[in-house]
Predict the 3D structure of the following.
Amino acid sequence: MGPPHHAATDAIVSAAQPVVLRGKFAYGPTSKDAEDETVALWREEAPCRWREVARAITDGDGRTRFELPAGSLTGPGPHPFRMFLLGDLTSADASVWVVPAGTRAVLFDVDGTLTTDDGELFEDLLGGGAPDMQEGAHEVARRWAELGYLPIFITGRPYFLRSSTARWLVERKFPAGPLYTVDSVVDFAPTEGKVGAFKEAAIRALRDAGVDIAWAYGNASTDVCAYRRAGIAPDHTYIVGTEPRVCDDGAPTRPLPSYVLHLKELGDDLRAP
């Protein structure tokens, strides 16, 4: 049916929460689901030392779910996991971060925010090569990490671009952080009811895990509204462009005309929003 397009979801949990990991297994350009297949979950317990921790069967949509009890992981992470489809030993990677309540985080959209244009998504979809990066975007993300904030990447890209997106972030030297993509092909339309709703729900789930999203970056109206409706203050939201943006007659966001200039603003005064 073609090459694998598997994906596993990163997770952020508090020490008191169980660890839930989800995977999606599919093949080829039509994303043919791998149904009723056995998947083994392996955990890297030390560098180059892995151990199988659970098995599950994919459902009719090629999806599987693992739940590990609270307290299974110690330390903040990232804790690497790998899901193996035992039929052919293809795999998907994910990581778990265990965070204390009140962990400060900075949220980043990807297309049009870290990349130069929303159209970079379709270039990736069509195999047109790696997306171009906004100049200085990686340095801004790294600066936030240096200040003690956890970078979180939430994108409207579909699950089957998760691996290429994660690889792009590593190759462009962004700091390590959880990556969230849309779970369903029908939900990655750039509208408030699709991608906007996905991002709003993801942010609310992060807050439930005890994460304090202190700052956020985006570029589209769906970002402006998803962030505001999920409780991120507009004056702590940077939107790519030269003009402030508003949602629901709320307060204006901060414009972001240049990451290079913005980097000069990121001093210790931003430690306490």
